[in-house]
Design a protein that fits this description.
This protein is mainly α and about 230 residues long. Helices cover about 75% and strands about 0% of the residues. The chain is globular, with a radius of gyration of 17 Å.
């Protein structure tokens, strides 16, 4: 009984609490005055705290991390899936950014522009710390725990896949409607090898590559050419 209550509360935190906190914490003007390094540090700490909480919840509710996708896959499959997911995702992101430059896609929010690294040290922060943090924590929480929990609740892996992807998009509410849609599509794509292979490792590796390239090169190269929204 206790384990089920803890599971319900943690799922509620992921599907409602995280989007609410994300929205409220990015509404004030103070966040736009903070140094970029402080914002990065805040993101890293909050994600690891949430992942740490999730590990405790997993031990109580599922009893096994293997059930959430912590299982090995052959090296060839890991490399193949990582490359495929990263290439498709980055191509889609690049096309969207090009469409945005031409005014054919809703612009990014001012906060997205604010979080883009500018200096060499900020890019190192983004590639070496932010990207690995998001790769592990977000994949574990949304493609691991939430996908497994919702699949059980809905008695369907397919609906669990759809729902967990939608809630992953909602967690990116600070990016606006287009950013949430993009995150939901990316989440659905990254969930595919989890459903097919039962392993989180290809998705974690692909997420790392995607974020590293997007933060270290793609975003700064394309978005910096566009005027920052007021």
């Amino acid at each position: 009984m206790l384990s089920k209550l803890v599971e319900i509360l943690f799922v509620a935190l992921l599907v409602a609490g995280v989007p609410a906190l994300s929205y409220l914490s990015t509404r004030g003007s103070q966040i736009r005055l903070a140094p970029r390094s402080a914002l990065y540090f805040s993101v890293v700490i909050s994600q690891w705290l949430l992942a740490g909480l999730g590990m405790g919840v997993t031990a109580l509710t599922f009893g096994s991390f293997r059930a959430l996708g912590f299982r090995s896959v052959p090296a060839a499959a890991l490399i193949r899936w990582t490359a495929l997911l990263a290439i498709i995702s980055l191509l889609v992101m690049g096309i969207i950014l090009l469409l945005e430059q031409r005014g054919w896609w809703p612009p990014e929010t001012d906060l997205v522009h604010l979080l883009l690294p500018e200096t060499a040290s900020e890019k190192l922060w983004a590639v070496l710390i932010l990207a690995p943090t998001a790769a592990f924590c977000e994949e574990y929480l949304y493609r691991g725990y939430l996908l497994a929990a919702l699949s059980q609740w809905l008695h369907s892996v397919g609906w669990g896949w759809v729902a967990s992807s939608a809630f992953f998009g909602l967690a990116h509410v600070y990016q606006g409607a287009s950013g949430m849609l993009r995150a939901a599509v990316l989440g659905a794509l990254l969930a595919y090898p989890v459903v097919l292979l039962g392993s989180l490792y290809p998705s974690m590796a692909a997420h790392l590559v995607i974020d590293a390239v997007a933060l270290g090169w793609l975003g700064p190269s394309l978005l910096r050419r566009s005027p920052t929204p007021p």
